[in-house]
Recover the amino acids of this structure.
């Protein structure tokens, strides 16, 4: 569970987030939309413990973000896959264990890495290197790396931004299956409306300077989401309404 209670954050004298509160329940996926530069990634970094708000409180399963991150309870998937080219797929997935000071090659951690690769459909690619993979496969390896320590929460920051449209749709469908299977509380930051709707249970719009949540929506679509859903009237109607709302929200 993720609890953000009235946080404010500033870079120097510039206030980015103001009295922002949200809550993500177990198994819920929350999508965050908003203009470029509004502070979506700043919010994620605060939740991950990479930045510290000047005011307010954040709890991940009752723990402070820095404590949760140190305990490998926060999985973070960035815009770029950030894979190490000289390490195999398996060795890349084992990185979180090494970063936490653990012996990555002990059987328990290796088993977790293989389970995570199996979850994203890449167990057979464990011995390959990033340069041998497609863009979509690389991002799935990055997801496996984030999931390997069995985190309590998952933070996704524009995870498909560098992937072409057709690959994006395919991996988006795969991602939904994975999130539904793991039931990990997840926050997704994206500019892509269809992606946000497809993956999320609930959506919020972040706007203003300083930023705050100005609107929220329950997605309300069926749980078994697949390719045909992208053309269903309920999906298209919600996508149109969200795009109209975003167009009326000024850039920062």
């Amino acid at each position: 569970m993720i609890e953000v209670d009235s946080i404010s954050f500033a870079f120097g004298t510039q206030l980015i987030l103001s009295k922002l509160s949200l809550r993500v329940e177990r198994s819920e996926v929350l999508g965050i939309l908003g203009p470029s530069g509004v502070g979506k990634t700043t919010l994620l970094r605060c939740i991950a413990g990479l930045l510290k708000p000047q005011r307010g409180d954040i709890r991940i399963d009752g723990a402070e973000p820095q404590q949760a991150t140190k305990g490998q309870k926060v999985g973070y998937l960035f815009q770029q896959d950030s894979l190490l080219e000289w390490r195999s797929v398996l060795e890349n997935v084992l990185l979180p264990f090494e970063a936490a000071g653990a012996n990555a090659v002990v059987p328990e951690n290796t088993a977790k890495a293989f389970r995570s690769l199996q979850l994203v459909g890449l167990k057979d690619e464990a011995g390959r290197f990033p340069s041998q993979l497609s863009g979509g496969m690389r991002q799935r390896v990055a997801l496996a790396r984030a999931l390997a320590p069995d985190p309590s929460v998952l933070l996704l920051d524009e995870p498909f931004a560098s992937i072409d449209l057709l690959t994006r749709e395919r991996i988006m469908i795969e991602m939904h299956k994975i999130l539904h299977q793991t039931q990990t509380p997840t926050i997704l930051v994206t500019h892509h409306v269809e992606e946000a709707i497809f993956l999320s249970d609930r959506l919020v719009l972040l706007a203003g300077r300083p930023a705050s949540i100005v609107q929220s929506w329950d997605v309300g679509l069926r749980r078994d989401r697949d390719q045909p859903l992208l053309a269903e009237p309920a999906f298209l109607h919600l996508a149109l309404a969200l795009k109209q709302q975003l167009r009326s929200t000024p850039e920062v």
Q: What stands out?
A: The chain has nine helices and nine strands.
